[in-house]
Amino acid sequence: MFLFVILLILLTSFVIAAETSEDTKVEKARTCLTDKVKDKCSSLSVEEQAFTLLAIGKCSSELQDKSKDDECWPSSGCKLRDTALAVLALDNSGKSATKAEEWLLEQKKIPPDLIWYLEIDADEETTCKVNYGSTEKTIKIGENKKIDKSVGTCLTLSQDNYWLKVNEDCYETNFTVSCNKDFKTTLLYSKKNSPTIYVSSKTNSASSEGKTEEKVNAFCFNQGASCDYEGSLWATFALAKTGNDISAFLPYLMAMAEDNEKYFPSAFLYSITDYDSYFTEIINQQKDDYWKISSSPYTQFYDTSLALMALYGASAEQKESAKTYLLGVQDANGCWHDNIRDTAFILYAAWPKVVSVDGGKMDECEDYKYYCVSPLDCSSEDKMGSFVCYGGKVCCKTEKKEETCEEKEGIKCNEDQECTGSIVPASDTDSCCKGSCTAKEEKSTCEDENYVCRASCLDDEEGSTYDCNGDETCCAPKTPGKSYWWVWLLIILIILVILGIIFRNQLRIWLFRAKSGFRKGPAPSRPIPPGGFPPAPPTRPMPMARPRMIIPRQFQPPVRQFHKPVSKSDKELEETLKKLKEMSK
Predict the structure, then answer these.
(1) pLDDT at 354 over 80
(2) 248, 362: one domain
(3) Distances from the Cα of 291 to the Cα of 24, 267, 287, 456, angstroms
(4) Strands (DSSP E) found in 170-224
């Protein structure tokens, strides 16, 4: 019984250790990062300082020292990406970055690569007046939705007369529309030489003789003489996190995403918009439990961090598998790739926490009964800028109602099925399928073990003995060393058994007292084995010495020896020792 209790305690401790292993590894990473930047913050780059501040709250003053009058980073030559990272890091730690936000907004310009259209729609034939500047034109919209003529030089017939194309010189012009029937107006846009048409998220409507106003409101962030796409991604993300209206920057980011896939635009756009299409793109781009975007200028750790930052708070098995992968390829010292930027970015994206800077720290949004939602789902009046949300979310007074899978016109696949369409998030399932569910294909033995079949293993992987289809090798994450915990468990068990043998009499007394409720009284007498001798009588005081008497030597009969029979418990003990001995071979 005693050995069983000890064994149960040991097994429980191993379970607890397994559950806390992730926390231990993450804390080890924070310790490694802290050691790497200790007394070195001033020599780090702006991005290293910014990510370190986001992850562990270090390098705050050194980051500010690298700015140009707290407006832009670095002081030697202001860059969009560095400035955006600095704004993000300072805001996350509770420090003001207002001047830097204003500098970013001053860098906006109208992107020359977009074409804009005005659409006027009505359920029946109608006549409308269109005004801009000193120009006023009356046009007719037929039952077939076609427009009869152009409106001056700013609006010309296009797309088979269904829309009016906006001239580039009129992008910041206000267009006023009024019709004699109920109508709607909206703006559409596309990238030059692309058939894809994007519809503006805002649609205006009015009743008969009412009015609507439309104005092209689209910008990118300028670096030098042209739009900087990567800089625009980070600048838009940072300004969204700090509570600014970023809707005017989305058309450029969305339309030009296809030409800039190396920067992983879907990760940024899902963080900002929460659109299902970008969620699907992120999920589909994961390979082998991590993300490495084709032609990306960064490492797989950086790209994976971008994805995890976007998916924070979302239910997706790809997110969890990526975190498991990261912990499996962690360096022995706790960092990743022995790289400050990558380690800091991973911690901020996958395991963020409120950081303390100069003795103060921000409060978490949801601790105060507010809600973390995407920037587009929270009005400027409801944004709570003094509270922290992780990923791309902002703190909002109002909650976003997440739609169910059925409301999104999706279906739930069973565990033995897979989705042939796209996976989108839903409030009632982790995998809402926008397509059909089919039976899962059988995986190879290697994939059953959650390893990966490749032509050759990566630097941070090693070959395993599991089978792959064809000539591929089964690649598993490298381990820092083999674990011999079972050897120590065996040694502990042997020691416990030996102690149980040596102190078995004391254990019997202890068990007797436990059964009797530890009542005071004489200890139980030792039982007399069958055929054995009774216990020795209690000792008495030594009598006084008497004169020595010489006794004649007499013949003593041989003493009969009694063998103690082997009890059932001793047999079990012998069998246990025998099994332990076999296990140790």
Answers:
(1) yes
(2) yes
(3) 24, 11, 6, 18
(4) 175-179, 183-191, 198-206, 211-214, 220-223
Give the pairing type, strands 363-364 and 387-388: parallel
Per the CB < 8 A criterion, the answer to whether 300 and 292 are in contact is: yes
Q: Tell me, what DSSP letter sits at residue 185?
A: E
Residue 130 is part of which domain span?
113-217
Residue 104, domain CATH: 1.50.10.20
Give the pLDDT confidence of 478-511 residue by residue, as tens digits.
765 445 555 567 778 778 777 777 777 676 666 6
Could you tell me the sign of the dihedral formed by the alpha carbons of 403, 405, 407, 410, in that order? Answer: positive
Q: Is residue 12 part of a domain?
A: no
Tens digits of per-residue pLDDT, 158-181? 999 999 999 999 999 999 999 999
Q: What is the pLDDT of residues 509-521, one digit of tens each?
A: 666 666 655 555 5
Q: Is the pLDDT of residue 248 over 80?
A: yes
pLDDT at 276 over 50: yes
| Calpha distance 300→294 (Å, rounded) | 10
Beta carbons of 267 and 274 less than 8 angstroms apart:
no
**C-beta atoms surrounding 17 within 10 Å:** 11
Alpha-carbon distance of 241 to 376, in angstroms, equals 11
Spatial separation of the C-alpha atoms in residues 122 and 115, rounded to whole Å? 23
User: Does residue 565 have a cis bond before it (omega within 30 degrees)?
Assistant: no
Q: Is the residue at 473 inside a domain? A: no
pLDDT value for 346 = 98
> Phi and psi (nearest 5°) for 556?
-105, 130
Q: CA 419, 424, 427 angle in degrees (round to 5)?
A: 115
In sequence order, the 6+-apart residues with CB closer than 8 A to the CB of 272 are 236, 237, 240, 246, 250, 374, 375, 376, 392
Sole residue written with tokens 């989108």: 424
Retrieve residue 502's tokens: 């040596």
pLDDT tens digit sequence for 304-324: 999 999 999 888 889 999 999
